[in-house]
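User: Hi! I'm working on a homework problem where we have to compare a predicted structure to a textbook description. Could you give me the structure for the chain below?
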Amino acid sequence: MPKFVCAAVLVAFTSFHIVVHAEPLIGPGDRVLCIGDSITAAGHYVSFLDIQLRVQYPNDAPTVVNLGLSSEGVTGLSEPDHPFPRPNVHERLKRALDQFKPDVVIACYGVNDGIYHPFSDKRFAAYKAGIAKLITEIKRRDISLVLCTPIPFDPAPLRVTGKLLPLDTEKNFAWFAIYEDYDKVISQYADYIRTELKGVDSTADVFQDITDTLADRRKSDPSYTMSADGVHINVAGHLVMAECVTKACGITWSTIDNILFELTEKNTRILHDAWLSKVGHLRPGVKQGKPVAEAEHLAKENDVAIAARIRLLTPKASAPAPGPLSPIEDVPGLPRVLLIGDSISIGYTLDVRRALEDVANVHRPRTNCGPTTKGVKELSGWLGKDKWDVIHFNFGLHDLKWMGPNGENLAEPNKAGNHPQVSIDDYTKNLEIIVRGLKKTGAVLIWRNTTPVPKGARGRVVGDSLKYNAAALEVMKRHDILVDDMYCYSLAKQAQIQKPKDVHYTREGSAFLGEKVAQIIRRELKKQ
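Assistant: Happy to help. Predicted structure tokens:
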């Protein structure tokens, strides 16, 4: 395995930070699946990402599994001299998603899909179709997707050795005999991934970041390279890739400690081999991994050393402020409050906790509660067996969002074949079921209605919140449930607190909503 060499062995946790999303795409306890070709199979960027997630969520680190497969693409195309048909991710994608059940998928494909030939409209169309199919399969399961551009092909090291082939060659192009302008071919593939594809939650432009890093390093060292064969980047290249992917996930970049990296690499390799064998594939020459249960046991043992190293590097990281999805310990004697809702609710959870500190123990499910269909299925688990004094709940934005005929997320509203995820009739029926379940707890119930959809928000229709709120209000009236009219008080300040063309709120906006929620909960607690 190549050793990671860095001028500074440890970049201090506080030396630099990259934060993009107010709400990271990867949360505590999430399951993260990385898929791709030999770059992903090498696993180094996956290990770097895993480190950042462990640092950010030391008490409930996500499970990160690398399922990269060498030679793979999204098209099923192979160059004539390739020793076997290149694997197509679509042969195994459904199995991978159904068996691992990820919350987030990180995918990187493209450098193999041009099969190292000059540009071809037919091959490019196959790539676009393969990416579209990948997005559809992932979003059908309501999984978050971070899509990477392909890594760049670097012709410089091969140009020096004369191993590139010109356009008019009589030889066959292949991964070992690459077209001299293949960097320009892959640049077009990267441009396509950058086009804000529907269903992609975030794009990691690893092509540009690696290209820029190479250009910068070659100012002082013209012979500098990250890949001896122009394709397979070394650990330094993986570090650049990892920073880009981490940024796209909204995670703070903290450290590149060598010892921590090597410890994490052990887990990456063990779990990669085990899951690759479990899911299955068609590539010859891949060693059999251990059974998943055995691999997970070995990884768990190694987790002790990883956690100890993180504590050594960051003493304060062992007791971080809990995030909105982190479990809390009850303060004895205080009433118990449960917040149920989607990402809007997640956004104001910490603000409600702060506002009700020493007043109530404020809990929430450790998930985005999504549409009412999810609420019907999972409500009993969210409620548990402990007593609740107040339950503040909402469903709506995930019910009214539009889906495509094959489960495409945030599809174009009113287009033929598309439909709201949950119709108003089914929404009403589901709310009846949920309310009956909530009433059995004996808690004071507060219905928080659904916030406005702003102009330009993808996959939703301005005004649909009012329609779903009207249906919900009839249910709440029948059951004599108090209503928190968040729609109205957020609409009054929409320009100041809501993100443009986005149903989500700014940090200041979530704080405003949290204060309002805390006020109504505090008022109801005083009545008890």
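For your comparison, note the following. DSSP finds 18 helices and twelve strands in the chain. The first strand starts at residue 31 and ends at 36. Good luck with the assignment!
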